[in-house]
Specification:
The structure holds two protein chains of two kinds.
Chain A: E1 12-14, H1 25-29, E2 35-37, E3 44-46, H2 56-60, E4 66-68
Antiparallel strand pairs in A: 1-4, 2-3
Chain B: E1 2-4, H1 8-19, E2 24-28, E3 44-45, H2 56-66, H3 73-93, E4 108-109, E5 115-119, H4 126-134, E6 143-147, E7 149-157, E8 160-168, E9 174-178, E10 182-184, H5 212-219, E11 224-225, E12 234-236, H6 245-248, E13 254-257, H7 271-281, E14 288-291, H8 297-307, H9 315-321, E15 331-335, E16 348-349, E17 362-364, H10 375-391, H11 403-418, H12 425-440, H13 446-464, H14 471-496, H15 516-519, E18 521-527, E19 533-539, H16 570-580
Parallel strand pairs in B: 1-2, 1-10, 2-6, 10-17
Antiparallel strand pairs in B: 3-5, 4-5, 7-8, 8-9, 11-16, 11-18, 12-15, 13-14, 14-15, 18-19
The chains are: A alpha+beta, B alpha+beta.
């Protein structure tokens, strides 16, 4: 089966300037386990477009680096 | 004992069982701190029966009518009689409930007659408070929490639940559990219908609740019931939060059609209310709106401070993205995708008033367990009951695990890894759930549902060939099999009941009338001896309370239960405190 690279607008964005290296608070809280730490940068990012836009990731972030938007299809 | 699911019901089952000395393993596919349908929190409870404000008899009668008489009243009666003690127990843990100036619970009326809706001013902290209780010093020696572990099958030996098989969704390792008893508290089947947006995870229910427990209970041999009584809810169009008449009503908000006229006579969510909503949407008077724009600015600010903070904090973001404001724009509403959920309607695993399923050693609670319209108080109460029942019935302890069942579960979990080029989960799931919408959404007909059933049968093969490359993808592929099981159950149960009942929830276009003569009964389903789905009816148990204005079509006389002393006395409250701490 073909592997296709496709650009996707993901609802959760994390400001790498603010994100604390290797902190996993947002990653731990996501009910869908859609966030991960990028091993190269140590910063959190959304690695699958699976989101209930529920908000614990943003609420738990101690530095306000996490923004939850509405998925594009619903926006 | 094993508790599967760490939401409202599972957490309470764990706290209760451990409080009685049981060793409990709590498995949660997400993280207990923010898992379950609550995720972020809840603005209030919908079904608190507070002494002096309402009586258990009133509540049970109200739910009986809302569910067209098809209830095992003994289960609903538990929620009615134990709900107040539960509110007090939650307060001792640190949950806040609204009180008026006389220090009385500020219950509000949304139901047809009684007042049961009780706001929680700091509702966003509910899971935090419960998690803290779970991690308390008294609980630590007895409670082990495993986050990010997803069970896929309950194991049985000699017809009794003796454990479960699952896997770690982070590192992919297989997890087998031997348990004296198993409590399933996995929430709704929330990823059944596809939201109109097409976004797989934009469901009303938390999409992590994929119907896991419905599928696990079924494969373990348990009976399920009321599956044809779908959950369909009135929501903001395109946003998965309730338009929230429950919150807005007391402030003067209400639902209107495009002509600005009211059209529902009670905002309490029921199949009948949903039928009225659907009728209006499909008429020349659609679309419909939650009207707030007539309210003063200060009132709207207050509504925003509730609706945009706790239950769905991105709701404000949604409106802001479209430059909509309650002061100038009424909120367009629509109906949700279909789901299975006893918290809102009545589809779930068949349980008695002790939370016992038809499989010895297997208990169920929360949205998964059929106790009609049980909502959050009911999830807590049945979590408590399930914890007590399971802790007293751990006979399965020490039974050897059935190897064939472990192997089958292993195959279910890991097969996609051996065929990584197989169709990916997002496409397969989208297709499956589009068929659910095409063929199962009410109004239902025999031909539509049979065609749906054919699609779900055909997709068994496609699901079997799905490919995955990571533990995370394995979680999603197993979930597709849960969704497919639920779709088949939904189609078969709906086909079986050849009448219309519960308003929109089971509206058969080909059998438009209610047929009390033949269908005043439960429709149950279970796995037959040959492995195929078996449908059966069960009579409605004698009522325990009289239902004013409702005559049982089968004429069965009520059998009142001995009512326990009012829990309102200081002595009883003190006793309850000792037991639950």
């Amino acid at each position: 089966m073909a592997l296709v690279t496709q650009r996707t607008d993901v609802p959760v964005t994390i400001d790498p300037e603010l994100c604390i290296d290797n902190c996993t608070l947002c990653v731990d809280m996501c009910p869908l386990d859609s966030l991960a730490i990028d091993p190269a940068s140590g910063k959190a990012y959304m690695y699958v477009d699976e989101c209930w836009y529920c908000g614990p990731c943003a609420a738990r972030c101690p530095v306000g680096a996490v923004t939850v938007n509405i998925p594009l299809l619903l926006r | 004992m094993l508790v599967v699911g760490g939401g409202t019901a599972g957490t309470m089952a764990t706290l209760t069982a451990a409080g009685q000395g049981a060793r409990v393993l709590l498995m949660e596919k997400a993280h207990v701190r923010h898992s379950g349908s609550l995720a972020m929190g809840m603005d209030g409870v919908n079904n608190a029966v507070i002494p002096g404000k309402a009586t258990p008899e009133e509540y049970v009668a109200e739910i009986t009518v809302a569910n067209d008489g098809i209830v095992n009243q003994r289960t609903v009666y538990q929620t009615a009689t134990r709900g107040f003690d539960m509110i007090r127990r939650l307060e001792r843990y640190g949950v806040k409930f609204e009180k008026d100036e006389h220090d009385e619970y500020a219950v509000r009326q949304v139901h047809r007659s009684g007042r049961y809706v009780l706001p929680m001013p700091e509702g966003r902290d509910v899971k935090k408070v419960l998690y803290r209780a779970l991690r308390g010093r008294d609980m630590r020696p007895l409670v082990q929490i495993e986050n990010r572990v997803m069970p896929v099958r309950v194991l049985t030996s000699g017809g009794r639940a003796v454990g479960a098989v699952g896997f770690d969704t982070r590192d992919g390792s297989l997890v087998t559990v031997r348990a004296g008893a198993v409590v399933l508290a996995t929430g709704a089947s929330g990823r059944l219908g596809l939201p109109a947006s097409g976004y797989l995870y934009g469901t009303y229910e938390n999409p992590a609740n994929a119907g896991d427990g419905y599928s696990m209970a079924y494969h373990a041999g348990a009976e399920l019931t009321g599956i044809e009584c779908f959950q369909v809810n009135p929501l903001i169009k395109d946003y998965n939060g309730p338009a929230c008449a429950y919150v807005a009503n007391p402030f003067g908000g209400y639902t209107v059609n495009s002509e600005g006229n009211r059209f529902v006579d009670s905002d309490y969510w029921s199949g009948h209310m949903m039928a009225e909503v659907k009728r209006e949407l499909d008429s020349a008077r659609g679309p419909i709106y939650l009207k707030l724009s007539h309210l003063p600015d200060s009132t709207i600010s207050k509504i925003e401070s509730i609706l945009h903070v706790t239950e769905r904090p991105t709701r404000g973001t949604f409106h802001a993205n479209r430059q909509h404001d309650y002061r100038t724009h009424d909120v367009e509403m629509h109906v949700s995708e279909i789901g299975l959920c006893s918290g809102h309607s009545s589809s779930g695993v068949w349980v008695d008033e002790n939370a016992a399923t038809t499989v010895p050693g297997l208990f169920a609670a929360g949205d998964l367990a059929c106790v009609p319209h049980n909502y959050m108080v009911g999830a807590f109460v049945f979590g408590e009951i399930a914890g007590t029942s399971a802790a007293a019935d751990v006979d399965g302890a020490g039974a050897p695990l059935p190897e064939d069942q472990v192997l089958e579960a292993h195959e279910l979990i890991y097969r996609p890894l051996s065929q990584p080029d197989g169709p990916p989960q997002p496409q397969v799931e989208y297709k499956l759930r589009r068929f659910v919408n095409d063929y199962l959404q009410p109004p239902k007909t025999e031909r539509y549902m049979e065609t749906g059933l054919e699609s779900f049968q055909r997709m068994k093969r496609e699901i079997q060939f799905m490919g995955a490359r990571t533990p995370h993808e394995l979680m999603r592929t197993v979930e597709v099999s849960f969704i497919r099981d639920c779709a088949e159950m939904a189609a078969r149960a709906s086909l079986y009941r050849t009448e219309s009942r519960w308003g929109l929830y089971h509206q058969r276009a080909d059998f438009p009338e209610r047929d009390d003569e033949n269908w005043f009964c439960h429709v149950n389903l279970r796995k037959g001896d040959r492995g195929d789905m078996e449908l059966l009816t069960r009579p409605v148990a004698p009522y325990v309370v009289d239902v004013p204005g409702f005559t049982r079509p089968d004429g069965v006389e009520p059998e009142p239960v001995e009512r326990a002393e009012s829990s309102d006395t200081a002595e009883n409250v003190a006793n309850a405190a000792v037991i639950s701490w």
